[in-house]
Structure prediction request, 379 residues.
Amino acid sequence: MFAQSLIHADWTYALWSALVLLAAFGFWADTTKLGSTISGIAATMAIAMLLSNFGILPKTADAYGIIWSYLVPLAIPLLLLKADLRRVISETGGMLIAFFLGAFGTTLGAILGFYLLPLGEEAPKLAGVFSATYIGGSMNMAAVSQAVSLDPAMAIASVAADNVVGVAYLAFLAMIPSLAVFRWWFRFSHSTEGADNNRAENIEKPAPQLNLQHLGVAIGLSFAICAVAKALAEYLGVGSYSIMFITAITLLIANIFPKQLKNLQGDYDIGQFFMYLFFVAIGVSADVVAMMDSAMVVALYALIIVVSHAIVIFGASRFFKLDLFEVVIASNACAAGPAPAAALAAGRGRHDLVAPAVLLGVFGYAVANFIGIMLATSL
Prediction:
């Protein structure tokens, strides 16, 4: 559209200023009513895409490569250092069964949509990205998109589809406990025993704090994990899948040293900021025309996956005689991540399910990269 952008690709400081400020805008948007509805990530990507397509920011630059190649891998350990999987098994009970059912339904839907829809050459990558998204969350969408090199235009369409379909499904989940057919079909408990569980540490998003010693340890450890994982992946001849090794090594460390790592402050927040920078880079690299061409079929693909997830998790959970509200929270944690699931539990007065919701969401973060990359590779 434009021969030369207003901010040139080699104006390093000016370009990084724009990228960081756009990421900051995303965090601010999450605090507003409209922004929280569409998500700060979607708002940031939309603004970034407009700035590049109207010639303000360049579509390609070395800075974007730095984000893809370095900041995304570094973010994964920072986001998972507190993923103590033993707590998931001990504190979630039947909800873990429901979560596995939901993950199976998501994967099944991704495979069905892959064969039913004309998704083009990016179809295997989309299958991996969407399965990771609806088992983990936006962190996994970013990680798997980077690992499989998803086209930026398709990535934008994926985020847009995820927002439309995902928000609709979350609204549906919020209604389910009030629907007579579900209350008749499922065992339904109003119990709030163990309400003190919501005092457990919020693994998904601890309160932001600035401790330079802790930040130094967390970032240094993240660099070390990435270095070992990258070397191991290259040695085994699968260097393009180093993110799987990064995830595995991080989970190993997190579960060997849970007491030492739980006291770290600011690690999650820095990791989240790196991920927002990734979505900014995706936005500025995307072509509006290409995104619009693929938006409808990608949205339909997301709908197939979510419907498959819902059918499997609610149908099979009925067979296992699981509690309705526990299934709703497990589905929320699987499809949207820990924060929305915890918010729904708290909003419905089920404070006993807040901590399990967070734990299930973090468990989704931990396993979704493996599932997404393996599915994309197999297809």
